[in-house]
Each structure stands twice: as C-alpha cells, then as structure tokens.
Amino acid sequence: MTSKRKRAKAKKAGSRAGRIARLRASVEDELFRVAEEDAEGEARWNRPRKQRISLRVDCEVVDWLKSKGPGYQTRINRILRRMMVEGKKRMGGK
Q: Least enclosed by CB within 10 Å: which of 7, 46, 62, 89?
C-alpha cells in the first residue's frame, strides 16, 4: 500500500470518528431535551402512580445521568415514558 493510500485511509477513519462523536452528542442532547421537556409536568395530584423496582444499569449510564445534576431517576422516568408514548403512537395503540 502506498503512503498516499495510507493517508487517505487514515483521513477517512478520522472523519468517521468525528461523525460518530457528533451523532453521540446529538443523541445526548435529544435525550436531555426529552427529559427536561416535561419538567413542569402534571399537577401534583394528577401524577401517575409509581412502582418501586430494582433496575440494573451500567455504571457509565448512571454516572452520565448523575453528571447532569440532581433528579437522575426522574430523567430516566421521563425518557422511558416518552419512548413508551412514541411507541404506542407508532403501533396505533392507546
């Protein structure tokens, strides 16, 4: 392989890494937008009931959520609720 091809291959790999980093950043932004969008939420007396569960989550995920400030469990719930609602819409359900 010529040095010209090697440089072209390295350049292509570098641009790919940049695209992946931008994609990850946009996904993070979108998740936090979803979590913060319902920040006002429903009135206290009109909130859905909650159930205490035990959930095993990767340490990196928990650290990332906690790094955004207090209320990481609420953010998890809002993200999951949004995914549930969107999934129901796609399925044509209630």
A: 46
- What type of residue sits at position 43? A
* Cα Rg of the chain, angstroms: 20
Each residue's pLDDT tens digit, 13-64: 567 777 777 766 676 777 777 766 665 555 667 778 889 999 999 999 999 9
For the question of whether the overall pTM of this predicted structure is more than 0.90, the answer is no
DSSP the chain: --HHHHHHHHHHHHHHHHHHHHHHHHHHHHHHHHHHHTSS-S-GGGPPP---------HHHHHHHHTT-S-HHHHHHHHHHHHHHHHHHHHT--
Cβ contacts of residue 78 below 8 Å, gap of 6+? 34, 35, 36, 37, 38
